[in-house]
Every structure is written in structure tokens, then in C-alpha cells.
Amino acid sequence: MTGHVHIVGGGLAGLSAAVELAGSGVRITVYEAGPACGGRARSYEDRHLGCRIDNGNHLLLSANDAVFRYLGLIGAERSLTGPGRPIFPFVDLGDRSRWTLDLSRGRLPFWLLSKRRRVPGMRLSEIRGLTRLTRAGPEETVADCLLPGMLASRLLAPFAVSALNTPCDTGSAALLGAVVRESLAKGGRACIPCFPEVGLSESFVDPALAHLSILKAEVETGCRVAAVEVADGRVTGLRLPDRLVAVGPDDTVILAVPAPVAAGLLAGKVPGFTAPDAFESILNVHFRMPVPPSALGALGQARFIGVVGGISEWVFVKGDVLSVTVSAANRYADRDPDTLAATIWDEVRTALDPALASPLPVAMPPMRVVREKRATFAATPAQERLRPGCETALGNLLLAGDWTATGLPATIEGAMRSGATAIRVLRARGRSARATG
Length: 437
Fold this sequence. Notes:
five-stranded parallel β-sheet, seven-stranded mixed β-sheet, 3 domains, 30% helix, alpha/beta, Polyamine Oxidase, Chain A, domain 2, Amino_oxidase, 20 strands, 12 helices, FAD/NAD(P)-binding domain
């Protein structure tokens, strides 16, 4: 494999592709439009809060093979933390009930037989809803598959909204079924939760950039690709604000930008190209505490809690920052951010106080609302049909990103899987060229 590989986009898909290829002897350049790499999975200094926060919260699972391969390549596999076992504390704000989902480590779901380890109030017959999800057809929604009961309302529906970032009545059951097959269906060993010990950048971005620097890959930030030049069925140039980068006959371009950016760059230039065009937002609220709260019990072990029956969905305890995630947040687009944050703070107090050594203050502490308006594509059956594969009609253009056809919703695992797929395709083409040369 020869030539220059141009990777447009320094998010996790682009970084994954660069890390997979680095050290192969091929020249690599990553072009990132923003001032820093990482995309939706990065950390930054927040002046209002006076501390470093993540722009979002991401709960990973031990089944995320692409994530752990990436972390291993960049030497950051020990930067994640978690309870070390498949436990998930929950609270229902409706009746204030609390429980900890405690999964069996093996494939046999013995946890279902224990009322102490499963969702309270669920009936074993509700498990048929899980089976229906794993067998769902491409046009079915999550709501089509769920059965009425506590398993759906207290676990499967909240899980679906978090995994798909899409409401159950429109979310793709097939995509959720893929997540279930790769996690819960494999048993608790595949469902051990983990997240960055320090921050997203410290786990996924900074070690990758250091790794790429050592291996002589080039990373240019603040470098927006404004246009893609195409002629004779291939990309011939990348137009930057200050120059045109020629793409030679042996060069390859991997476009690893968000779907709307890709659609804008490739409109009318790539026959048959489609991309998702409907999106869902994610809302995160970060509360800076005067002192780090002391969590007890399952909350102290997990350092997060799932919330049912409110606006909040997950609350993470990150030192002196309490960070709340709200998925499928288009439904709250018209709500005043300050009023929304105040409501969420009341939910946080209700959810956390019984599990803390000392109660949280009644008055809302300094906070930051972070709303990503187009965080992911809407994971509906219609949008799933628009997701393109890695290869395109242009001979030297490959696609990567969590919005491409990864078989998963828009997740970190999907993003990294797409980057690795692009490099596998590139290498396969190189082997084929040598075989016929």
C-alpha cells in the first residue's frame, strides 16, 4: 500500500482510522476543522464552572471490542474506570423505589430468577420483549416489540432511548436488537460498565494524538475542508481555506465528518450517495459542587445511576461535578435552559440524596447546560436505510463515521468500528492491486 491517506475529520472515527493505519509506512494527514480533535467525545475547560468537563457523557461496556482495541493501540486501556462488575443502580422518581440490576456474568441469565437482582415488579413473561427485539425486522420500532410491564418501563425503554438517542415509538428495533445481541445476550461479562477516569480527551484523544505524533502522522487542527474536487471518478483535491491539497493517483481520502458535512461536500459529486438527514439532540447538564459528594452503596461502586420517570436519564458522579445526560432531547428544545436545569437539579437531589453521606444543597449550584442539536442521526427505520457503506462510487474515497452503515446506532463503538473498517478496505485494495500488478 502506497500513497498519501487524507483523513478528513478528527473525531473518533477519523482518529480510529489514523491509529489503525499509523506505523504502516504510509503518509497520513488528518484534517480537523475545529481547534481540537475528538468531535462529540472530548473535554474542555469551562470558564463559568472553573473546571474541566466533558462535552457529553458516554457509558461504555466491556463488549465494545472496537473501543478496547483502539485504547490498546494508543496505550490508554487503563484510563477507564467503573465498578468492575455488571451492576447498574436505578431509581424511579415516580414511587422513589431503588434497585440495582445485577447481571450474571455468564450467558445464562440467572439474575432473572432473583427478585433482588432484577427489575422490581417485572414478570418473567416480559422477557419475550427482549427476544422480539433481537429478531426485529427492519421496519419495526422499539414500541412494536416491547411488552407492557415493569421490564419495559424501568429498563428496556430507558435503555432504548439512551442507546438509540431516539424515542421508542420511532426508534429502530433492529438497531436496538443489534445492541442487545452484542451486550445483554452475551451475559454480564459483556456488560461491565466503564467510563473515563479523568475525561474523554484524556482517554480517547490526547493519547491518540501522542501516538500519531510518535509514528509521524500529521494532524492539522483549525483546518476545514471547504470542498472536495472530483474528476474522472475519483477525488483529485481537497480545498482548504488557504490552499488546494492535490490528491495524487495513489492517494486515498477517508471522509470521517458528520453526516450533514459529508452531504454538503459530496452533493452532486458521488453517484448514489445518501446520508441520514434527520437528527436528535442530546442535553447534558453539569453541576459544580462546592465539595465532592460522598456516594455510598451501589452508587459509590458504580459512580452513576439510571433515572426513570423524569427528564434526567443518567447521573454521573465525577469528583465535584455531577453530570446529567438527557437523550432524545428534541422534545425539550423549546424549554428554557435555566428552568430545565432547575427541574433536573431537583431530580438529581431526589435520585442521589438517599445514596450520599450528606444531602445535596437545595439551592442549585453553578451549572452548565450543553445541548448538541444534531448529536446523532435519528435512529429510525427510514434513516437507517439512508446510511451508506464504507465504499463509494469514487475509486479513492472511503467513508467513516457513526452515521455510516456500522450495524449499530450512533455510538463510540460504531464510530471506531467505521474507522477500522475503512482501513481494512484500504488494505484489501492494496493486496488486490499487488496480486494483479
